[in-house]
Design brief:
The protein starts with 14 loop residues before the first helix and ends with a strand. The protein is an alpha+beta fold. It folds into two domains: 35-158, Nuclear Transport Factor 2, Chain: A; 161-287, Nuclear Transport Factor 2, Chain: A, CATH 3.10.450.50. The protein is 28% helix and 40% strand. A hairpin with a 2-residue loop joins strand 2 and strand 3 (115-125).
Length: 290
Amino acid sequence: MIKVWPGSAPAGRLAVALVLCALSSAAVAQPAPSAVDSEAIRAVDRYLETWNSRNPMTWAGSLHFPHVRPGAGNFRLTRTPEEYARGVDFKRVLATGWHRSMWDSYDVVQHGPAKAHVAGHYSRYTEDGERIRTTFVTYVVTRQGDRWGVQSRFAAGSADVGPDQAAASESAALGAVESFFAALGNPTAPEAVAATLNYPHVRVADGTVVLWESAAQYLAGPEPGRLRTWAGTRLDWAEAVQVGGGGVNVAVRYSRLSPTGATLSSYEALYLVTTRDGHIGVQARSSFAP
């Protein structure tokens, strides 16, 4: 199924994505939402409903663990609902004048058998209905056993971004993704790949959540060996899903290659690109690949 995401790449960038958009515009009808889409939407609805309950443990019940919310600011991995709830301070949130949060929009942009990426836009309001702030987040929703929940939240930040800033941020983010895949073109040089990432770096894939605190930790782990399993990796297309004040969420499709250049497998993924200490890099990845 061909999918189109809001936003567009700069002129001349990733022509394949433009061809897919043209093909999709000719479609007569869109298929009905899948069961996975429905479960994913229910999971993010439950997430915001329990947030509005103002009860940390109730809210933590909408999540899967380990859980992480990567973004441009500080973040950490939490392993249990109890640990997560201890870090939630609703008194501080209420002190800002917050009364409730409501969805502006949400959309399932990618899905697999047990996972979906939901691009969400929500706003916080006072009791009088005044909007305090509006935010872009893409939710990584997974199934654990027979239960769906939010495993991770890729925070793009404020949705109040002007068109010039949005265009510049989108272009820089797509460039960072292209640099990451260019580095993957030489699987024997993992240092080049590590240099395209921001840290702490997060990968959500194959039923696991991994966080690397530094490039040294990334290089000391199993990732270099995993990358050497294929002769190369090709970026097939990339499209900005959300452009916020703190980052850009980019949907991609890529293929793993044999020594002859043949395609071995292809997967979709979502990458959060941020600026950290002046470096524009990939902060977090959620892939449907093993």
